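Progress note, sequence design subtask.
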């Protein structure tokens, strides 16, 4: 007996028919009320499609809000800590927004679709917060999560794949630039954005064109090693890029239960997104106070000795005192390093600090403990030149 869509506990995205046919592992997870693939076949194969070919990830469950109205820019400037006046039509901007304590509610991207129309993409649901912030502004805010579907097309041959789709001029898109292209009787929005730290694009269309987009994309990408990927492969790539993720590397401020568990942008290594030269934005007073008095935590990238990932590890100083914890960790196939993202108590996390990760790992049912030396790393663990090139070089 079929189950009515409205009665399902977890929904399927419009790409489900194509994804399920290719998912050999039957490994799925719930993402914001949708079911999405964790791994199609082999994690390592999917990962290397990100770094050596073209990978495709279903972005549909990402929260999406349409913001429109003559006060839209002023509203966004109050919401975000970053100065939004440079976000002209055809551009995308990454940023964070905070509560009055200066703690991050979420991070995300803002697309300036056309004059007085924007799209905010985020991990968490924020409609109530956005509506409260919008009081006094002439704007309309609409949740369009279910009305727009997306595919992340990432990897060194991704541009060649899109060119094979007859998207004329797509190679001229600069990082964080977007453009509408004619596609099968509708418009396809292509943005040069992504969560892999590699050359890549995101494709956005309405749900009724989802299967057509998938089919055309995979046909065009067949000479370029195109593969669908699940969340496990994407996780490796985003850690290599040093990108943070809500509910993994920080607790969104609205989800915090215990006082002090929130994090400011500076405590997440995102102080470059806080612009005090604009007079008003949510959390400004608290963030200015933090700038003057100092932060509680430092967010760092760590190169850890050995090859055992330091998942959920405590970080110790030379006196074997706990000074922080790992938020994300993985063995990096591209950097050939054991890497991690970590939140440390101030003042720890300086380049010359002696730090150790407490790692537990199982071998033949025997648990082992190791204290592995850590080195603080500046910048991403993996940052290929093709990520920044316009047009991208061939591969």
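Output:
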């Amino acid at each position: 007996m079929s189950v009515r869509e409205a009665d399902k506990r977890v929904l399927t995205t419009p790409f489900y028919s194509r994804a399920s046919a290719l998912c050999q592992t039957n490994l799925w997870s719930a993402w914001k009320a949708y079911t999405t693939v964790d791994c199609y076949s082999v994690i390592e194969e999917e990962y290397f499609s990100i770094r050596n070919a073209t990978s495709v990830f279903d972005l549909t469950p990402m929260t999406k809000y349409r913001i429109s109205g003559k006060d839209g820019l002023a509203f966004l400037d109050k919401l975000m800590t970053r100065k939004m006046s440079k976000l002209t039509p055809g551009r995308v901007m990454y940023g964070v927004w905070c509560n009055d304590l200066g703690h991050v509610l979420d991070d995300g991207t803002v697309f300036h679709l056309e004059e007085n129309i924007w799209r905010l993409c985020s991990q968490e649901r924020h409609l109530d917060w956005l509506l409260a912030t919008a009081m006094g502004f002439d704007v309309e805010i609409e949740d369009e999560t279910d009305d727009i579907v997306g595919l992340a097309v990432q990897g060194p041959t991704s541009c060649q794949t899109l060119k094979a789709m007859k998207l004329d001029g797509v190679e001229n898109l600069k990082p964080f630039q977007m453009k509408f292209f004619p596609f099968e009787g509708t418009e396809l929005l292509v943005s040069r954005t992504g969560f892999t730290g590699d050359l890549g694009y995101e494709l956005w269309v309405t749900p009724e064109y989802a299967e057509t987009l998938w089919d055309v994309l995979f046909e065009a990408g067949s000479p370029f090693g195109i593969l669908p990927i699940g969340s496990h492969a994407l996780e490796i790539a985003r850690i290599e890029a040093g990108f943070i993720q809500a509910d993994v590397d920080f607790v969104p401020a609205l989800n915090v239960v215990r006082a002090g568990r929130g994090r400011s942008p500076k405590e997440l290594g995102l102080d470059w997104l806080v612009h005090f030269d604009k007079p008003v934005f949510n959390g400004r007073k608290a963030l200015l106070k933090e700038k003057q008095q100092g932060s509680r935590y430092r967010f760092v990238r760590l190169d850890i000795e050995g090859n055992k990932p330091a998942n959920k590890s405590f970080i110790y100083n030379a006196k074997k005192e706990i000074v922080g914890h790992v938020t994300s960790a993985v063995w990096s196939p591209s950097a050939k390093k054991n890497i991690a993202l970590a939140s440390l108590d101030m003042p720890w996390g300086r380049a010359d600090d002696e730090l150790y990760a407490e790692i537990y790992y199982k071998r033949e049912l025997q648990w082992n403990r190791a204290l592995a030396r850590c080195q603080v790393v500046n910048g991403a663990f993996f940052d290929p030149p093709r990520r920044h090139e316009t047009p991208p070089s061939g591969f």
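The chain has a mean pLDDT of 96. Work on this subtask will continue into the next period as scheduled.
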